[in-house]
Automatic annotation (TrEMBL):
This is Aminopeptidase N. Pfam families: DUF3458, DUF3458_C, Peptidase_M1, Peptidase_M1_N. GO terms for molecular function: alanyl aminopeptidase activity; metallopeptidase activity; zinc ion binding. Its cofactor is Zn(2+). Residues 460-556 form the Peptidase M1 alanyl aminopeptidase Ig-like fold domain. Residues 29-193 form the Aminopeptidase N-like N-terminal domain. The keyword Protease applies. Residues 233-441 form the Peptidase M1 membrane alanine aminopeptidase domain. SUPFAM superfamilies: Leukotriene A4 hydrolase N-terminal domain (SSF63737), Metalloproteases ('zincins'), catalytic domain (SSF55486). Belongs to the peptidase M1 family. InterPro entries: Aminopeptidase_N-like_N, Aminopeptidase_N-like_N_sf, PepN_Ig-like_sf, Peptidase_M1, Peptidase_M1_dom, Peptidase_M1_pepN, Peptidase_M1_pepN_C, Peptidase_M1_pepN_C_sf. The keyword Zinc applies.
Length: 890
């Protein structure tokens, strides 16, 4: 048996890529499923790769018991080398030969949840990125694509449902109460897309007819008792199928498409061909148990995994360095899908703002930290560590810039050419960019493709500096843009990026100035560029980087007056929101940098501007909620050279409390105006109203905490008891917990009693308490108590994330303690989880990526905690890579 903990750490480099020495054409897998000892018979047809010099066949394998190896039906010699099965003396020439490998494994002992494992009596697989080698010996790399036939055999009473990729060809009984199912996938695929599921499941089914007139069966499989929570997932799947065919002409290419939900899953979901396996968090929802955010996330993730059917499955990655070829592109596609489903333009804007907030609070810090890497990384120790916001979210922004540069129709032409060229192939990010450019030969992308591709090869977040100068006599406004990108690990010098800057100009009264189309999008491809606008009657207010047209930091010395004009009048919703964020951030940073106790950081002009947003008679409620949400502690900290986390926390809390008090009457108005929405519907308009009502209730309870008024906490508690949906109920509970009111001590156990049998709801209950504001150091003791709760299960990734990640990753004011207790807790949990699930442990290890920015005593204490983890001899490659890189530049 082999293990990730054995053997030397190996760095894999993109420049060392070489094609495989053998191709695998067909795979026939037969599983005799048993939790303690599953038997796997793997019959393959292989042939030598004529383009590669003759060499032994090396097959990957982990934690397998090898029983038999046959070549063309006869025994053969083999050896084991560093966990690989090595076969020499194979048939010469390029004619196909058969290889039969018989192995066993123990799914019930597989706590890593990679490969074949058992969760609550059901078999599941997770093979991306390198889990298939835990099922059978194989060329476990994405550029080896084969045709799969899979036969599953199991006890019928325990496992009545047997699923795998593709189409069901045959099923029937076997002796001794067993049965079988044979699945054939008509499309070649790499091993990471293999999947099987076997268990006692029920399915919601829907037959649909595609535009071509073909009928397809859609199925959502869940455990018994969860059927009432599958309607939204099914409707999201139907919408995804229809959207992809309408927007890009990409039809469903299988007789059936299946989704299966499991509560034990390291990721959100997995796009295995025709058999998507999902974390229950992104499938199960009804109004009583799921919030508006849950409904939106399910729609997005169901779309994402379905869209992989073409962008990832039909065309896949040549190697794992090309991961963003499928993930960045598919995140872009799921973002476009969610925006296209929004009936109102304001709802589209809200979705865009939400996506950018994720980028800024998660990806920008990654770009500035020790784990910084290009969208297409150059090397890795453990590929699981590069399923990152850079590969996904920044990768999506790179694709979005392509669409911006060639237009929506031009991008669709490029997608069409991409599939014409590469359907059924394993390709690279360069192949995708080339297809988009070749389909649009007159575009800026095609003219400067090599410059644009630096987004794939250079890490870091570019900073774009804008300087405007108005010449009243000449009636001319001159805008100069320049760019710079700071060094990142392994990349000291950066060449200029190609940066599309969408812009507009407003007059002092906020009216849009007419501009020719050629000046509404400036393409910055050099260190600097200058744009001249003529016939401008007065000094304009520039609206720069509209729609967040590039993933950059914009540096512009705009005045408060200019920002207030944009906040009140800009026709671009993103920049209207951005103006409010810049105003708030400016005040937060001033208060953080000031000496002495934290006073009231907000001035009357800002408060009046927020009141105007809140009371605005045409702005969407969801947009108001986003605009009135202050920049996060993480985002504020990223603007500082040295971070005192407690100071940042105190300032942001002071800003919240000041807004709560100053706008008390306005919050009361907003709550009363938006709290009633009739029968529950998770549409953007209704969800926005609930979000604003929830925010208002929280602010009113915060103000009550200062004033001692019991009216609004009492109303919140009554709302908690009477709510007709989970969103309103949880918003009311959150208002009590966040404000620290005594009624929270009554509401929390009542909530638990109501939903003790709903695992996903309990995750919210745990997370709310672990993420609550820290008042007097009370959160860490509460977290320890939560971990001792009978419903806490460390080995369940969702539950571990709900408590430990909510505290360490999402609650900086509580985590960064002067006594270092938070860091000690973090190191203990990383080491504890690493013993059974390295992938989850490595994600937790990322919580201290930005330790070098911390002020003392936090900095030294954080370094000591990281060093403690790094010093452990028994450490997975997943965690070791993270902590080693964190300490590498010390």
């Amino acid at each position: 048996m082999s293990s990730l903990r054995e053997g030397p750490t190996t760095v894999v480099r993109r420049e060392d890529y070489a094609p495989p020495a053998y191709w695998i054409d067909t795979v026939e897998l037969t599983f005799d499923l048993d939790p303690a000892k599953t038997r796997v018979l793997n019959r393959m047809t292989l042939r030598r790769n004529a383009a590669v010099a003759a060499q032994p066949l090396r097959l990957d394998g982990e934690e397998l018991n090898l029983a038999r190896v046959l070549v063309n039906g006869a025994g053969c010699s083999f050896k084991m080398d560093a966990g690989q099965l090595v076969l020499d003396n194979l048939p010469e020439g390029n004619e196909p030969f058969t290889l039969e490998i018989f192995t066993t494994c123990a799914p019930e002992k597989n706590s890593q949840l990679m490969g074949l494992y058992v969760s609550q009596g059901t078999f599941f697989t997770q093979c991306e990125a390198e889990g298939f080698r835990r099922i059978t010996y194989f060329l476990d790399r994405p550029d080896v694509m084969a045709s799969y036939t899979v036969t599953l055999r199991a006890d019928k009473a325990r496992y009545p449902v047997l699923l795998s990729n593709g189409n069901l060809e045959e099923e029937g009984p076997l002796p001794d109460g067993r049965h079988f199912a044979k699945w054939v996938d008509p499309h070649r695929k790499p091993s990471y897309l293999f999947a099987l599921v076997a268990g006692n499941l029920v399915a919601r089914e829907q037959r649909i007819v595609s535009r071509s007139g073909k009928e397809h069966l859609l199925q959502v499989f869940v455990r018994r008792g969860d059927m009432d929570k599958t309607e939204h997932a099914m409707q999201s799947l139907i919408a995804s199928v229809a959207w992809d065919e309408a927007r890009f002409g990409l039809p469903l290419d299988l007789e059936r498409f299946m989704i299966v939900a499991t509560s034990d899953f390291n990721m959100g979901a997995m796009e295995n061909k025709g058999l998507n396996i999902f974390n229950t968090k992104y499938v199960l929802a009804n109004s009583a148990t799921a919030t508006d955010t849950d409904f939106a996330n399910i729609e997005s993730v169901v779309g994402h995994e379905y869209f992989h059917n073409w962008t990832g499955n039909r065309v896949t990655c040549r190697d794992w360095f090309q991961l963003s070829l499928k993930e960045g592109l598919t995140v872009f596609r799921d973002q476009e899908f969610s925006m296209d489903l929004c009936a109102e333009p304001s709802a589209r804007a809200v979705k865009r703002i939400e996506d950018v907030r994720v980028l800024r609070t998660a990806q920008f810090p990654e770009d500035a930290g020790p784990m910084a890497h290009p969208v297409r990384p150059d090397s890795y120790v453990e590929i699981n560590n590069f399923y990152t916001v850079t590969v996904y979210e920044k990768g999506a922004e790179v694709v979005r810039m392509m669409q911006t540069l060639v237009g929506r129709e031009g991008f669709a032409r490029g997608m069409k050419l991409y599939f014409e060229r590469h359907d059924g192939q394993a390709v690279t990010c360069d192949d995708f960019a080339q297809a988009i450019a070749d389909a649009n030969p007159d575009s800026a992308l095609a003219r400067q493709l090599e410059v644009f591709k630096r987004w794939y090869s250079q890490a870091g977040t570019p900073r774009v500096r804008a300087e405007g100068r108005y010449d009243a006599e000449a009636r001319r406004y001159t805008l100069t843009l320049s760019q710079h990108c700071a060094p990142t690990p392994g990349q000291a010098v950066k060449q200029p990026f190609l940066i599309p800057v969408a812009l507009g100009l407003l007059d002092a009264q906020g009216r849009e100035l007419p501009l020719p189309e050629s000046q509404r999008l400036v393409v910055l491809a050099d260190a600097s560029a200058t744009v001249v606008f003529d016939d401008i009657d007065s000094e304009p207010v520039p609206s720069l980087l509209r729609g967040f047209s590039a993933p950059v930091v914009l540096e512009y010395a705009d005045s408060d007056a200019q920002l207030l004009t944009l906040l009140a009048h800009d026709s671009d919703p993103f920049n209207r929101w951005e103006a409010g964020q810049r105003l708030a951030l400016r005040r937060a940073l001033a208060a953080v940098r000031a000496d002495g106790p934290v006073a009231q950081p907000l001035d009357a002009a800002f408060i009046d501007a927020m009141r105007a947003v809140l009371r605005h008679d045409t702005l969407d409620a969801a947009f108001k909620e986003l605009t009135l949400t202050l920049p996060s502690e993480t985002y504020i900290s990223e603007q500082l050279e040295v971070v005192d986390p407690q100071r940042v926390h105190a300032v942001r809390e002071a800003m919240r409390e000041q807004l709560a008090q100053a706008l008390h009457a306005d919050w009361a108005w907003a709550y009363e105006q938006h709290r009633d929405n009739g029968a529950y519907r998770p549409d953007p308009l209704s969800a926005g109203r609930r979000a604003l009502a929830g925010m208002a209730l929280t602010m009113l309870c915060l103000d009550a905490r200062q004033s001692g008024d019991a009216v609004w906490p009492g109303k919140a508690y009554q709302r908690f008891k009477d709510a007709g949906n989970m969103t309103d109920r949880f918003n009311a509970l959150s208002a009590l917990v966040v404000s620290g009111h005594a009624l929270a001590r009554e509401a929390l156990p009542r909530f638990h009693a109501m939903f003790r049998d709903e695992a996903l709801v309990l995750d919210k209950w745990f997370a709310l308490q672990a993420g609550a504001p820290d008042r007097g150091g009370n959160i860490l003791p509460a977290v320890r108590q939560l971990m001792a709760h009978p419903d806490f299960q460390l080995r369940n990734p969702n539950r571990a994330r709900s408590v430990i990640f909510s505290y360490c990753n999402a609650n900086p004011g509580a985590f960064h303690r002067a006594d270092a207790a938070g860091y000690v807790f973090w190191s203990d949990r990383v080491l504890e989880i690493d013993r059974f699930n390295p992938q989850v442990a490595a994600r937790l290890a990322r919580a201290l990526d930005r330790w070098k920015k911390l002020a003392e005593p936090y900095r030294s204490a954080a370094r000591e905690a990281i060093a403690r983890v790094a010093a452990q001899a028994e450490l997975s490659n997943d965690v070791r890579e993270v902590v080693t890189r964190a300490l590498s530049e010390d």
